Amino acid sequence: MKKILENIRNSDKRFIYPQMGGMGLMLTNYTTFEVYEDSEKQLEIAKLIEKNFPTDFTYTLDFGTIVQNTIGLKMKKPDRDFPSTIENRIKTIEDIEKIRNINVREDGLFPIYLESIRKIRKNIDKPHMVAIVGPTTLSGELAGLEYMLRSSIKDKNFFREIIDFTTKITKEFCIAAIESGADVVQISEPVMSIIRPSIYRNMVLNNLKEIMDEINKRAVSSLHVCGDTKKYMDMMIESGTEILSLDQIMDMEWVINYVPKDIFVAGNLDPVEIMRNGNYESVYKEASNLLEKMKGHKNYMMSFGCDCPIDTPIDNMLAVIDAVNNYK
Description:
It is a single chain. By secondary structure, the chain is an alpha/beta fold. 49% of the residues lie in helices and 12% in strands. The protein is built from 16 helices and nine strands. It has helices at residues 3-10, 32-36, 39-52, 66-70, 93-99, 110-123, 135-143, 145-154, 156-180, 197-203, 205-216, 233-238, 252-258, 271-276, 280-293, 314-326; strands spanning 58-59, 75-76, 84-85, 128-133, 184-188, 220-225, 243-246, 264-269, 300-304. It has a seven-stranded parallel beta sheet with strand order 1-4-5-6-7-8-9. A two-stranded antiparallel ribbon has the order 2-3. The longest helix is centred in the middle third of the chain and has 25 residues, at 156-180. It starts with a helix and ends with a helix. 48% of the residues are buried.
């Protein structure tokens, strides 16, 4: 599957890197968890996306809180939006020991997620992308973001243990996802941009490299970080990722000229102000302007600053697709 990036680089057309799996939910009457609990519904949504606004990849409805659900943390489960963790009870090394034996092939909703990947990959002949949160982001979900950040300074033993644990779980899921048919695996690590850079470099970066190295053995790796990541850019490059997905706040002209040419850059239309709140004409214009800024850069893919909200108008997605297809 390494040929994916080679084919993109050698193609005359622009490619769309998707972060909009949730939009397919609006084409059905299903609730979010009804889809998470049924691989056939995941496949149905992937087919609906392919029919209504096809991009260059297929994309499973993202379940970023799958570990939290598996270990039984209390969660907010809205019918038509992504779930969120409302309980953070992993506060000690002893707490980590109690959940250390999670099996990503057997426990919780992991098996259904993996079955969804297999079904989508079998039924839609396009590269398939999945996403899972990175080590600091997952650690913040388990322990509480403030507690995790504070421990990175005041309780380094706990911080080290929870980062190692979340790295292990993330890596195991990546392996299972690739074996199930995932061609591109995105590590979503938004907490990177709020943790002290020196701490991330000294205590987390090697863990992120471990994950990327594992992905790169058999699939394409991607790293998404929200926020202003300029002072983290060197670490993001050093992680070994093959695709960098960036927030709308970033200056893409600066990024594309800073990043080595062998790394692809994806981004960064604003998923709320442009994609959800705009209309066909305004989205088409913004997408066309971004494509013009990226002219001549074969390592660029059109994408969004983060997941498009579930209620993003379909016409606005079509505007992006039309802008890409019409760009010369």
